[in-house]
């Protein structure tokens, strides 16, 4: 089955970021065309817009696999691409990460078994970083059970593994603020978050760390 944006394996930061930027620009352009031609001002506008298809064209970046996709899904994936690109650019410039390769990247599909949205390492079969990437527009930590799902995917549902792999959630600043809030009952949780704001963007990386570590507010 085709996905809106293809998965990548064993790539460099620069080449992957370039591919994702091309895919992002194409999706934004095609969505704008679909919106411009959509019917406006009707009493069934919401129903129609929810089902609006975006034609992605026959000439498109190789990362874009589908001919058409619903507008709502295009919006969701372009937001995820923006968060993902922020994360890639940050890892690519940081000591300890910049010499790694992108072992896996799944921009628009659930990752493979025991995989994650973004996986980094020095070589295939040797993982240094696991990251779940999402754009959550919420200031509530419990929104849609997303935190629990991300922790599960990172292998942190009952404890934070001490295996040398660094684990992150990449998300919006508002959701990051909710997840890492000092008001949460941290004494009852087996994890905490170390928060990194990615430059001038509104994207944050939350590193999942064992609960006995000092919480970074």
Please describe what this structure looks like.
The chain has 217 residues and is an alpha+beta fold. 32% of the residues lie in helices and 21% in strands. The protein has five helices and nine strands; from the N terminus they run βααββαβββαβαββ. It has helices spanning 13-37, 45-50, 71-93, 146-153, 173-179; strands at residues 8-11, 53-55, 68-70, 101-105, 118-121, 129-133, 166-172, 191-197, 203-210. A seven-stranded mixed β-sheet has the order 1-4-5-6-7-9-8, sandwiched between helices. The longest helix has 25 residues, at 13-37. It is globular. The N and C termini lie far apart (42 Å).
Order of strands in the sheet with most strands:
1-4-5-6-7-9-8
Major beta-sheet overview: 7 strands, mixed
CA radius of gyration is 18 Å
In DSSP terms (H or I, runs of 4 or more residues), the helix count works out at: 5
Sheet-strand content, in percent, reads 15-25%
| Class from secondary-structure proportions | alpha+beta
Outline: globular
Spatial separation of the terminal alpha carbons: 42 Å
Specify the helix fraction band. Answer: 25-40%
- Report the uncertain regions: 213-217
Average pLDDT works out at: 91
Helix/strand order: EHHEEHEEEHEHEE
* Assembly form of the protein: single chain
Please provide the count of β strands. 9
Structure summarized in a few sentences:
32% of the residues lie in helices and 21% in strands. By secondary structure, the chain is α+β, with helices and mostly antiparallel strands.
List the helices and strands and how they pair.
Layout: E1 8-11, H1 13-37, H2 45-50, E2 53-55, E3 68-70, H3 71-93, E4 101-105, E5 118-121, E6 129-133, H4 146-153, E7 166-172, H5 173-179, E8 191-197, E9 203-210
Parallel strand pairs: 6-7
Antiparallel strand pairs: 1-4, 2-3, 4-5, 5-6, 7-9, 8-9
Helix pairs in contact: 1-3
């Amino acid at each position: 089955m085709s996905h809106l944006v293809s998965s990548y394996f064993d790539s460099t930061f620069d080449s992957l970021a370039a591919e994702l930027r091309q895919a992002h620009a194409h999706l934004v352009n095609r969505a704008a065309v679909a919106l411009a031609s959509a019917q406006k001002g009707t009493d069934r506008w919401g129903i129609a817009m929810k089902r609006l298809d975006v034609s992605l064209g026959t000439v498109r970046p190789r990362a874009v696999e589908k001919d058409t996709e619903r507008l709502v899904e295009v919006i969701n994936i372009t937001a995820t691409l923006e968060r993902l690109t922020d994360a890639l650019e940050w890892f690519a410039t940081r000591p300890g990460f910049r010499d790694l390769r992108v072992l896996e990247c799944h921009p628009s599909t659930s990752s493979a078994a025991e995989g994650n949205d973004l996986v980094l390492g020095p070589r295939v079969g040797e993982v240094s970083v696991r990251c779940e990437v999402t754009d959550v527009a919420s200031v509530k930590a419990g929104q849609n059970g997303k935190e629990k799902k991300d922790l599960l995917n990172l292998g942190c549902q009952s404890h934070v593994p001490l295996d040398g792999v660094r684990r992150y959630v990449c998300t919006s600043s508002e959701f990051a603020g909710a997840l890492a809030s000092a008001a949460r009952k941290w004494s009852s949780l087996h994890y905490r978050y170390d928060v990194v704001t990615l430059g001038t963007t509104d994207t944050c990386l939350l590193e999942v760390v064992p609960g006995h570590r000092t919480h970074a507010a």
